[in-house]
Design brief:
single chain, mainly alpha, 170 residues
Length: 170
């Protein structure tokens, strides 16, 4: 995964309040220090993420991110969702909504059929209102859609962030 593709994952996770400005700043600082090339691009701006607002950083990420064509992007985000849900960092409602947002964005920008993810938010809503289905079935559906990507999500978290920052901050 390229650095520009990572920016997509960061933006999506930041917009959903899955990661923080502090975590993005730490990643940018680590990237800057570990890079032998002198950088004068967006990395410098990301190094001061905490002093800027979420909207400004989301905009900066969006301006510099790569294409969403790489299937690994949505798979990583699905994996991160399952990891955070499994560790009780996000609840079922938030996990379903997050998968819905990711599936919608990726599906509209590519030819990938992520319709299962798109319908997850509706399934949660209908089950929570006792209209159709139940929350146990929604949880099983979430697991079916996301748990297969758990290790991609864990690997992404471990290679880009302090594991404990992500797994304890939300």
């Amino acid at each position: 995964m390229t650095e520009k593709e990572k920016l997509i994952v960061f933006r999506i996770c930041l917009e959903a309040n899955i990661i923080t400005l502090s975590q993005i700043q730490k990643w940018a600082e680590k990237t800057l220090v570990n890079n032998e090339i002198i950088r004068d691009d967006y990395i410098l701006d990301l190094c001061s993420s905490e002093s800027k607002g979420v909207n400004e950083i989301v905009h900066l990420l969006k301006q510099n991110e790569g294409s969403v064509e790489n299937q690994e992007i949505w798979k990583i985000v699905y994996g991160v969702t399952w990891v955070l849900y499994e560790k009780n960092i996000i609840n079922l409602k938030r996990a379903c909504n997050f998968v819905y947002k990711v599936a919608t964005e990726i599906s509209y920008a590519t030819e990938y059929d992520l319709s299962e993810g798109i319908s997850l938010d509706d399934s949660y809503y209908l089950a929570s209102k006792n209209i159709c289905g139940n929350l146990n079935d929604v949880e099983k559906e979430l697991k079916k859609i996301t748990s297969g990507f758990k290790y991609l999500g864990l690997n992404f978290i471990e290679s880009n962030f302090n594991n404990q920052d992500v797994l304890n901050n939300n």
